[in-house]
Structures are given as C-alpha cells and as structure tokens.
Amino acid sequence: MIKTNGNVYSTKSADIWLDSIGIIHINYKQGMKINIKHAKENHIKITEASLNLKRPILADIRKTKFVSKEARDYFSKHELLKIGLAGAIIVDLPITKAMGNFFLKINRPLIDSQLFVTKTDAIEWLKKYL
Amino acid sequence: MNFDDQQNTNPKLEEVYMLIFNIADGNYDVSGNTSPNGDEIDALITGLNMLAEELKAKFEKTNR
C-alpha cells in the first residue's frame, strides 16, 4: 500500500492527499452529490496537497452518487490543467461507470484520463506521468 | 404504446420512461432518482440526468 506523504485534507465531499510516490488521491465520500461548491473546495485542497506542482491525480468516485454538470465542466477544463498531469478515475458499479464514461466522452477532460476498476491498475498507469 | 396502461412495470423503468418523455418534450430540469444498488438501470437514469443537464446548458447557450 502506498502511504501518504503528509497531510490528509478532508473537505465536505472528499479526502485528499499526496502519496509517497507523488500521486494526488481524491477519495470521494459516501453518497455525495458533487456540485460546483465541492469542486472548488477540493481544487483548493488539491493545490495545497500538491505543494503547487502539477501531479497525476487518482479520483475514486466509487461512493459518489452524482457529479453535476458545473462540477464536471470545472474539472474537465482549464482548472484541471493547472493542477493535473493525468487523471485516473476509479469506478465499480454500473452507475459510477456511467458517470465516468460520460465525463470522458462528453465533458472531455483536457488532460489524459482513463477509467479503472482497481486502484492498483490506476496507480500503475499514473506512474507513467511521474 | 401507453406506458400508463402497463401492469407491474418495474418502477425504475418507469423512472427511465419519465425521463425520456420529459427530455423529448424539452423539459431539461427533470431529474430521476437512483437506488443505492447502482445497477444498470441506475446507470441509465444517471446518464439521462446528465444528458438533461447538458441539453439544458446547450439550449441556454444557443438562446443567449
């Protein structure tokens, strides 16, 4: 297991931390419907956790209930370019797969992004960007 | 076919029909409820909810 490299930042919607190999983890909390307010709050904490460097991002949305259009747009467009090198999204149930696929195909993030069903595969893929 | 006449229709499928009819009618403020199961029908409902949001945004942008 890859350990945290310091602080875990807890927001209303997610826990965010930088791991020991340089990947930012965003674990969304149970049953959250992510809106633009959550996205902006998380963006601030990601920037803090990243120590102001662009890093690969691993977003675990398995417990998420919904992500609003405003939040999807916020994290697919320019804001993501400021903080991320690549994005791996972890999904499991059909509902989170649908959210992930919709995000990739319709909102089209500006950084290289993929869906994964295991954290191990996601981290292996993100290592290319370290 | 009139879905109101159907007997024993899966309530979650009724949610899907409701969303499709509303979106087709231009009512993009509609939103369907998903169950904690997160199954294929919940995925379909989620996709339709997202579709409605996207169409609403595009429609508003076009009319500006």
Q: How is the biggest beta sheet of chain B arranged?
A: none
Fraction of helical residues of chain B = 55-70%
Number of helices of chain A: 5
Structural Rg of chain B:
13 Å
Quaternary: heterodimer
Distance between the termini of chain B: 37 Å
Summarize the largest interface: chains and residue counts.
Answer: A-B, 14 and 15 residues
Mean pLDDT metric of chain B: 89
Mean pLDDT of chain A: 93
Spatial arrangement of strands, main beta sheet of chain A: 1-2-3-5-7-8
Could you name the ranges of chain B where pLDDT drops below 50 across 5 or more consecutive residues?
none
- Largest beta-sheet details of chain A: 6 strands, mixed
Q: Tell me the number of structural domains of chain B.
A: 1
Structural class of chain B: mainly alpha
Order of helices and strands of chain A: EEEEHEEHHEHEH
Task: Report the portion of residues of chain B in β strands.
Answer: under 5%
Give the class of chain A from helix and strand content and strand pairing: alpha/beta
Shape, per Cα inertia axes of chain B: elongated
Characterise this structure.
The complex is a heterodimer of chains A (130) and B (64). Chain A is α/β, with parallel strands linked by helices. Chain A has one domain (24-117): 2-Layer Sandwich (Transcription Regulator spoIIAA). Chain A is 38% helix and 31% strand. Chain A has helices at 36-49, 69-76, 78-83, 94-107, 119-126; strands at residues 4-10, 14-19, 24-28, 33-34, 55-60, 66-67, 84-90, 112-116. Chain A has a 6-stranded mixed beta sheet, with helices on both faces. A two-stranded parallel sheet of chain A has the order 4-6. In chain A, helix 4 links the parallel strand 7 (84-90) and strand 8 (112-116). The radius of gyration of chain A is 13 Å and the shape is globular. The mean pLDDT of chain A is 93. Chain B is an all-alpha fold. Chain B has one domain (9-26, 37-63). Helix content of chain B is 59%, strand content 0%. Chain B has 2 helices and no strands. In chain B, helix 1 runs parallel beside helix 2 (40-63). Chain B starts with 10 loop residues before the first helix and ends with a helix. Classes of the chains: A alpha/beta (130), B mainly alpha (64). The interface between A and B is medium-sized, with 14 and 15 residues.
